[in-house]
Design goal:
Layout: H1 2-12, H2 17-24, H3 28-36, H4 43-52, H5 57-60, H6 69-119, H7 131-164
Length: about 170
């Protein structure tokens, strides 16, 4: 794919991301995003990239067939459109997964809170002369104490995350 080809050709030419970025008048992070597959260069930058790497655009895009100049630009546009569509689908899928994870976290926090409310600190009635019950009581109390203090913060953060990842 495009990202792997950019990285392989850049390394085979002995260029760092910084050096390639200077040749293209972009920042190093842009090259990194292209190589990680997080974004793609537009058609102008793709042509400049092919010149900087001294490689045909068709090779960058994974093709080996030589085409005429106008067909080449049209093919580049079509391939970039397909790649952008794939990135958009991946981004939407990540958004959905994050949204449901935030909702599950909210439900989990609410469930544990309901559990603690239902059991109503049962360790208060335990006989602490037994060392095993004393350790269990202290552990249960510590768990409950930390949870009650951290749950509102975690619930608020998870609710905010669910709100921010909702479908707009």
């Amino acid at each position: 794919m495009l990202n792997e080809n950019i990285k392989a050709i850049r390394k085979s030419k002995g260029l760092s991301q910084e050096e390639l970025a200077l040749k293209l008048n972009v920042v190093r992070q842009t090259i990194s995003k292209w190589e990680q597959g997080l974004s793609v260069p537009d058609s102008d930058l793709l042509i400049a990239l092919s010149k900087a790497l001294e490689t045909p655009v068709s090779t960058l895009l994974g093709e080996t067939v030589a085409e005429s100049e106008t067909d080449s630009v049209k093919a580049i546009c079509e391939k970039l459109e397909i790649i952008n569509l794939q990135f958009a689908q991946q981004k939407e899928q990540r958004r959905k997964v994050l949204h449901w994870l935030f909702l599950l976290l909210c439900a989990g926090i609410a469930g544990v809170t309901a559990f603690f409310a239902a059991v109503s600190s049962p360790y208060f009635g335990w006989d602490y002369r037994d060392p095993e019950l004393a350790v269990a009581g202290v552990a249960f109390h510590a768990l409950e104490w930390f949870f009650i203090r951290l749950a509102p913060i975690a619930f608020t953060a998870a609710a905010a995350g669910a709100w921010m990842t909702r479908k707009k």
